[in-house]
Design brief:
Layout: E1 3-8, H1 12-19, E2 23-28, E3 45-49, H2 64-75, E4 83-87, H3 93-106, H4 111-121, H5 129-138, H6 144-152, E5 164-167
Parallel strand pairs: 1-4, 2-3, 2-4
Antiparallel strand pairs: 1-5
Helix pairs in contact: 2-3, 2-5, 3-4, 3-5, 4-6, 5-6
C-alpha cells in the first residue's frame, strides 16, 4: 500500500532500512541539514531549510516557495514505494508537510478526513500552522485545511514523535 512515513530525524536510518522509501523530504534548519542518504539520487531527496516557525518572519520561516516545492515534489512521487517525510522531532514541520501532500493527492473535500486520520495515528502531531496555511492557499482550499487542522486540537506534548504511517488514499 502506498504511504507517507513521518519520522523524527533520529528514526531516519531505521525508516530507510525497514521501509525502503523511494523519496525523502527533509525539513530542517540549515545548520542541521543532512546529506542525501547513500543510495538516493539527489532528485529524490527534497531538502527544505526552514525553522519550525508558525508566523512568517525572517528568511528561515516556511514560505510559499517552500510549500510549492514540497507540493511539486509530492506530485513527482509515483507512490510505488513509501515517501519518508521528516523534521527534527517528527511533530510539526513533517506532519504539516505530509498533510499537505496527502491533501493535494486526495483532492478537495478530503481535508477533515486526512486530519482525523493523522490525529488517530499521531496523537503527538502538531502540524506547523504556517505550512498548513501556505499549502491551503497554494491548493485553493479556501481555509478547509486550516480549519481541519484546528479541529484536530492540540496534540499530546512530546519531546520527539515516533514513526507514523499515513496510507495514501485518493477519492
Amino acid at each position: 500500500m502506498p504511504l507517507i512515513l513521518i519520522t523524527p530525524l533520529s528514526a531516519v536510518p531505521e525508516a530507510i532500512r525497514s521501509h525502503a522509501p523511494s523519496h525523502i523530504v527533509t525539513l530542517l534548519s540549515a545548520q542541521y541539514m543532512i546529506e542525501t542518504p547513500a543510495g538516493f539520487a539527489a532528485d529524490r531527496h527534497l531538502c527544505l531549510s526552514v525553522h519550525d516557525i508558525a508566523d512568517p518572519q525572517g528568511d528561515q520561516a516556511p514560505a510559499r516557495a517552500h510549500v510549492e516545492r514540497l507540493l511539486e515534489f509530492g506530485r513527482g512521487w509515483d507512490a510505488q514505494a513509501p515517501m519518508l517525510v521528516h523534521c527534527w522531532a517528527g511533530v510539526s514541520r513533517s506532519t504539516a508537510s505530509a498533510y499537505a501532500i496527502l491533501c493535494d493527492r486526495a483532492g478537495p473535500g478530503t481535508e477533515r478526513d486526512i486530519a482525523r486520520r493523522l490525529r488517530e495515528r499521531a496523537p503527538h502531531a502538531q502540524p506547523n500552522r504556517l505550512i498548513v496555511r501556505l499549502a491551503d492557499e497554494a491548493l485553493g482550499r479556501d481555509g478547509a485545511m486550516v480549519r481541519a487542522v484546528d479541529e484536530m486540537g492540540s496534540g499530546v506534548m512530546v519531546t520527539e514523535g515516533y514513526p507514523v504511517e499515513m496510507p495514501l488514499r485518493t477519492r
